[in-house]
Amino acid sequence: MENKFCENKIECNADFQRSDSPDSVMKETGKTSYQCDICEKTFSQKCRLTAHSRIHTGEKPYHCNICGNSFSHKGNLTSHQRIHSGNNLYQCDICDKSFYQKGHLINHQRIHTEEKPFNCDVCGKSFSQKGNLTTHNHIHTGEKPYHCDICGKSFSQKYYLINHQRTHTGEKPYRCDTCGKSFSQRNNLIVHRRIHTGRNCISVRYAENQSLGQVI
What positions does the domain C2H2-type occupy (predicted)? Predict the structure, then answer.
């Protein structure tokens, strides 16, 4: 019987025809339930469990025949191939910006609508992107999942880790267009530019005096 709910019928049917290998991360728990041996998440269709298992195995069976990039899901390969074809199927009807994936268009449209559907259960703050809510939640949980592989220091946001790593690498990506001086932090460049514009010169001098001897 054809599995009409599976997005990829060919892959799904093939999975049902194959017998489970000894090192498989899958096990059948019932007629319509399949469970992952690693994280115990359950699925009603075996093809969905097969796709999920690639999170654990790292398998990427779908390859781009143009650039060689590999993907764990066929849909991701299809979206990627639009980069080569120049076929942007999803276009914003407000600013005409185009996207390769519908999800990216939906996220973009919230810039225009100012919709913030993701709400923090603790403080009620709202966000337009789910990832921003996840990052915000670290404030409440105290979780610091981003670790420096040089000194081991941890951070709640990836942005803070990137800034911190520049203390090790010496990278200064923010450059003044007027005098050429470079900075590791964007805010330091903004303060520095006021020297050239004449804005808040006293505050700038005070800030620079306070930072003497510190790594910029």
Answer: 34-61, 62-89, 90-117, 118-145, 146-173, 174-201
Give yes or no on whether 36-85 and 90-141 have one common fold.
Answer: yes
Give the pair of three-digit tokens for residue 205: 């001098």
Per the CB < 8 A criterion, the answer to whether 95 and 64 are in contact is no
In Å, what is the CA distance from 2 to each residue of 12, 45, 65, 105? 10, 12, 29, 32
Instruction: Write down the pTM of the prediction.
Output: 0.43
Return the SS3 of 175: strand
| 36-85: CATH number | 3.30.160.60
Rounded to an integer, the average pLDDT of 45-50 is: 88
Domain boundaries, the chain: 36-85, 90-141, 172-200
Asked whether the beta carbons of 43 and 71 are under 8 A apart, the reply is: no
Distance of CA 66 to the CA centre of its chain: 24
Residue whose pair of structure tokens reads 């097969």 in the numeric block: 50
Predicted local confidence at residue 24, as pLDDT: 39
Question: 90-141 maps to which CATH number?
Answer: 3.30.160.60
